[in-house]
Amino acid sequence: MLAYIRKVTSKKDDGASAVEYGLLVAAIAALVVIIVFALGGLVREVFSDTCDEIKSKADGPGTITTSCDNGGDGEEGGE
């Protein structure tokens, strides 16, 4: 009888629940946001420097002049 009660009342928690998966997804999303904000300025600077370098090498007769936008804040150039 005691074995039957143990068998009936025991809970097997073999897998992860939806709440645990939700917490995992939220943690990964938070990590991605932190990484994007941490590296955003560096990546913008690298692209701006690359654009400025290409622009300086391409200046000459018959070239189309463009401005290197530094992220859409309304200022021209990378400075």
Description:
By secondary structure, this protein is mainly α. Helices cover 62% and strands 0% of the residues. It contains 2 helices and no strands. It has helices at 2-9, 18-58. The longest helix has 41 residues, at 18-58. It is rod-shaped and about 95 Å long. 0% of the residues are buried. Mean pLDDT is 78; it is low at 74-79.
Ordered list of secondary-structure elements with their pairings:
Elements: H1 2-9, H2 18-58
List keywords for this structure.
single chain, 79 residues, mainly alpha, 2 helices, 62% helix, rod-shaped
Proportion of residues in extended strands: under 5%
If helices are DSSP runs of H or I spanning 4 or more residues, what is the number of helices?
2
Biggest β-sheet: count, sense, barrel?
none
Helix content: 55-70%
Task: Determine Rg (CA atoms, Å).
Answer: 28 Å
Give me the strand/helix succession.
Answer: HH
What integer is the average pLDDT?
78
Q: Which regions contain 5 or more consecutive residues with pLDDT less than 50?
A: 74-79
Task: Look at the helices and sheets and give the structural class.
Answer: mainly alpha
Gap from first CA to last CA: 81 Å
Apparent shape: rod-shaped
Strand tally is: 0
